Amino acid sequence: MKKLLFTCATLMASSAMFAQKANVNKAMSAITAATANPKEINYEKVAEAWELIQPAMTDPVSSVMPDTWYIAGRVKCLYMNKMLNDRAAGIEMNMGDFFDNQYDIVTYFSKCDELEHTPNAKGKMPKEKYRTMNQTLATGPRQNLLIAASNLVNTDSKKCIKFLDLYFESFSDSLFNGIDLTAKDTMRSDAKYIYATALKTEAKSSADTTKVMKAYEEALSSASYAKNACFELMQIYKNKGQMDMWEKYCHMGVEKFPEESMFPKVLIVEYMNDKKWAEASSLCDGLIQNHPEDEWAYYNKALIEYNQEKFEAALEAFLKTTKIKDDYSDAWNAAGKAAWKLAQDNATDKELSKKYYATAIECFEKVRELEPDKPDLWGYSLYACYNNSGNLEKSKEFKQYVK
Question: CB 3.0–4.6 Å: which of 93, 124, 266, 357 could bond 343 by disulfide?
């Protein structure tokens, strides 16, 4: 009796196994029927094929058959074409469904190729039937993985990472053997920046941050995002308190992206805070050379001179700043203070002192013209300069600002 039960169980298992193999064959027939007329796909047959193949994708026997995954991929390709045709006809496409479809296509054909090139228990390699066709069908969806990730990076970082994981895996996937994706796909470094951005959103630990940094490092060769990756690495190292590394990437930004003023600007500010005047001044010179119309570099070059008490050079530099931007009230105000200081320092030379006071007054009057509602910027300064230069009558106009 026990033997009979065992035999029955074996027969039932064998029957189930052959049932899924039979489903694969039926699904293949349904696909063939569905595409008999390429201009008019029979989607009822496509749906039939999908219903038949799904249980085969999880069955222990049929799930290791290349045919199973080929059929699954073909079904998804046919549904992709339907979505594209519907969109062309004016029907709005659900982009989430479309990109999930692209992910499935690459995944299924990849699985098919893996099984098609895996030897069986006896060491015999299956006959290759599908690679060329699978490559053709999967190439577009593979590229769409990156497009999907770009669309999702700011809204669904987890899914963005999922799509890019498959995209990166494709570079070493046997499915694409012979295509040389490394040479032909120029978007890989761009994808690394998108990947790093999504990883950064999901990062919870130092190990996660390390992954983020690695991805940003790989994005430094991106044609589109290299400078962004460089800046992100700067910020990460600054947050970690590793200012030597922050400075390293800042210098990299200055050297690699001369068209981008942000890198020298943040480095100049840091050097000025540390009183590294020579280094800051040199960077200002480079910034002026690369961005001759940017008043920021002129103004900070002047501040560097002023902080070193080189007041003549500072005055000249502040006035040069106002030639770049005539309504720059801070530059006019700073020029006035430099001239005022020179007037005081040359008090024994009456003519020279008077000359500097005249310059200071001109500068502070310009500040008053630009900022009439801010007498704290020019009120007392004009009183003092008029008074010290001997124009007592004029100084009375500003006495109310003496505190």
Answer: 357
Residues in the chain: 403
Q: Give the predicted TM-score (pTM) of the model.
A: 0.83
Q: Are 321 and 348 in contact (CB under 8 A)?
A: no
Task: Evaluate whether 49 touches 27 at the Cβ level (below 8 Å).
Answer: yes
Q: What is the pLDDT of residue 9?
A: 45
| Positions of the chain with pLDDT lower than 50, given as ranges | 1, 4-14
Q: How many CB atoms lie within 10 A of CB 233?
A: 24
- Other beta carbons within 10 Å of 169: 14
The encoded tokens of residue 3 equal 């033997």
Task: Give burial (CB, 10 Å; 0-12/13-18/19+) of 156.
Answer: middle
What residues contact residue 99 under an 8 Å CB cut-off, 6+ apart?
144, 145, 147, 148, 151, 152, 163
* Helices 131-152, 95-116: crossing angle, 10 deg rounding: 140
Non-local (6+) Cβ contacts of 277 within 8 A are 271, 304, 307, 308
Which pLDDT score, from 0 to 100, does residue 15 have? 53
pLDDT score for 12: 46
Residue 122: the pLDDT is: 81
Distance CA 300, CA 200 (A): 34
The per-residue pLDDT for 4 is: 47
Backbone phi and psi for residue 276, each to the nearest 5 degrees, phi listed first: -90, 75
Contact 146, 167 (CB under 8 A): yes
Check: CB of residue 212 under 8 Å from CB of residue 198. Answer: no
CB contact burial 305-334 (16+ within 10 A = b; e otherwise): bbeeebbebbbebbbbbbebbeebbbbbbb
67-76: pLDDT as tens digits: 999 999 999 9
